[in-house]
Amino acid sequence: MRREPHGGCGRRSGETHRRKHRPGAPGRPHHAVLAKLGVPVTSSDIFGVAGSAWLDQLRLPQPYAGKITSLRQLAGELSAEIAMLSQVIGDLLAGDRGYQVIRQLPGIGPVLAAVIIAEIGDVHRFRRADQLCSWAGLTPRHRESDVKVTRGHVTKQGSRILRWALIEAIQHQPAGSRPRAAKDAIIARRGKQARNIAKVAAARQLLTLVFYGLRDGQVRALARPPALTPAKPAA
Fold first, then answer.
1. Does residue 29 have a cis bond before it (omega within 30 degrees)?
2. What's the chain's average pLDDT?
3. What pTM was computed for the model?
4. What is the pLDDT of residue 33?
5. Which of 32, 42, 214, 222 has its CA 20 to 30 A from that of 120?
6. Buried b vs exposed e over 141-172: b needs ≥16 C-beta within 10 Å?
7. What is the mean pLDDT of residues 185-190?
8. Whether residue 191 sits in one domain with residue 162
9. Is 194 helix (H, G, I), strand (E, B) or coil?
10. Average pLDDT for 6-20
11. At 77, is the secondary structure helix, strand, or coil?
């Protein structure tokens, strides 16, 4: 009998997929509790404002009500810890010029900015932005012979944490930003099946902006063009 890989889910590879199936991998316990009662979860953020209001309206029997209450309290405590640590990080890096500069980039908050600064270190060891992107593992594999050039998946060399931070920032890009426009253009051209490719391409563009911000102390792409003053009529 043919054995299905990875517990019968049909997937054979992938870093995120392996983490999902490793022993002791965390699940979504609040969803599991509600699923036992046949309660469909209609909120994408069950511990957010809308999700909390929805949970308040539920009348669950014990012990499920107690379990949900416990999980909500735990989520609140973790959120408070995250907020406190974010404040600590901001205070420690308040005098770091590079930290302040890349905080101006869309999608990069205090935590992601600190991760990016810590992982890159001294940006001047890279002469060009594409060298930093290659070091971060965001460039495609390139094989070339006399008659054929082959490009494959990204190398995933370098810092895995840096790649995570950049992809996370891409998830929060507002409409109109350059990385968001690059991602949307690839998806529009190649379809939704290219979403991962689009995210990596957008992350590469965002890292390029990070490089110039750390090197130059400013991101010129964010500078607004000077307002045009109306010409005075000739006397």
1. no
2. 79
3. 0.65
4. 84
5. 222
6. eeeeeeeeeeeeebeeebbeebbebbbbbbee
7. 92
8. yes
9. helix
10. 43
11. helix
